[in-house]
Design a protein that fits this description.
It contains 5 helices and 11 strands; from the N terminus they run βαβαββαβαββββαββ. By secondary structure, the protein is of the alpha/beta class.
């Protein structure tokens, strides 16, 4: 696949762009993320990264990527507006590369409780999946320099989306689906390739 420009939506610390840039050194890469800290880390890797909303961009790209569960973090109410903006960022004939967690991944792999600890930290994760919504409650205990422990908690939501729904809402053609088995013998994730019609 030959391309001249790529936009990574939800670029995080820029690791994905950093890796792909090594394979396609002549292409222009841009990353956007809502987190100023992640954008700072991406810039530290030499990535052209910005804290900006996708809908505020004006450039078009040959490839747009949304990886590492990025689309699963969008609720069904947020998805149509986001995909409309994403389509506008794709050049005619442009490619969207993304991943989605499967129903099996949510129902069978991500469910339950998990704990981990080291000398100064203990984390507990409890997760549930109901009516298309995955809820993960994270509780972290950290020891300070003395013997006191400090507790913090956060809840993360993810949403199940069908690949065909993305195609319909974005007005894109679904070209390829690749099954991925990260944590189980059955498919818990899939990589998807879409194209904007010319």
């Amino acid at each position: 696949m030959d391309f001249h420009s790529l936009l990574d939506v939800g670029c995080g610390s820029g690791d994905f762009i950093h890796q792909v840039r090594g394979v396609f050194p002549d292409a222009r890469f841009t990353g956007i993320d809502r987190s100023p800290e992640m954008v700072r880390r991406a810039r530290d890797q030499g990535v052209d990264a910005h804290t900006v909303d996708l809908c505020e961009l004006s450039d078009r790209y040959d490839v747009v990527t949304c990886v590492f569960d990025m689309l699963n973090y969008l609720s069904p109410d947020e998805l149509p507006g986001f995909l409309a903006c994403l389509r506008e960022r794709l050049a005619p004939g442009g490619i969207l590369l993304c991943d989605l967690n499967t129903l099996y991944g949510f129902e069978e792999v991500a469910m339950g409780a998990f704990t981990a600890e080291d000398e100064g930290r203990f984390v507990a994760i409890e997760s549930d999946f109901e009516e298309g919504v995955y809820t993960a409650d994270f509780t972290l205990f950290e020891r300070d320099r003395g013997e006191c422990w400090h507790r913090s908690s956060q809840t993360i939501l993810q949403f199940f989306h069908e690949p065909e729904t993305l195609a319909r809402l974005a007005g894109l053609e679904l070209l390829e689906r690749e099954e991925v088995r990260l944590y189980a013998e059955e498919q818990d994730k899939e990589f998807l390739l879409y194209r904007r019609p010319r």
